[in-house]
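Minutes, project check-in
Item: structure for the 236-residue chain
Input as provided by the requester:
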Amino acid sequence: MEIITRAEAKEKGLKRYFTGKPCKHGHISERMVNNGGCLECDRLRKSTCEYDNYKKMYRKKYHNQNRDTLIEKSKRYRNENLEKCKESEKKYREDNPDKVRLINKKKYEKNKINVLKKQKEYYEKNKTIILERNKHYRKTPIGKASRKNSHIKRRLSKKEGDVTTEQLLILQKTQTHCYWCGNPLKNKASHVDHYIPLSKGGKHTISNLVMACASCNLSKGAKMPEEFANSRGKLL
């Protein structure tokens, strides 16, 4: 085997070269031109767990040092191969539903404030379109079935409660203002609202009922009380 230096190997355009001298670990083998490393050391390192940790550490360090460049490169690739990326992402979601659900949940918890803000801005900007789309959806077979299913679930949840008609009458007489906005309910359509929604584990008990105006009750929907109160600038 020809003995040459690294500089000579670079001039000849070689990827490997042989010096005839042992490396610091005593291996007499070829070296790599790109970093001067011993091929035998590299082979042994790759066959151990140490290499896996080294590879993870190196990738993390490289990513941190070139984060902006990598993000820009990723965006450019996605724009150039949009259909291919969408198909790949769709297949991944279908093959890993639990993993995707967990990732989305963590992402939502991490950016909850920004997500809710964007959702609110989008709703205000496209309110007419969204309402029209929901109205159309409720008329479709799947929309009708979904609505009926939700109604049945609510009826089953209410059956577990112990609210009597007398208790509801007392509640309506004693709570004359909307629990959420404070506006008087006199001469307005009043709704009986579940403080903790039935869909979130709330019970149909008198302690979980409050009086609300139609606007607040419909806006609250299935939101938890703290979430809805914060969206209205109110602290509980």
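Outcome recorded: The chain has three domains: 6-63, 68-110, 160-236.
No further action items on this chain.
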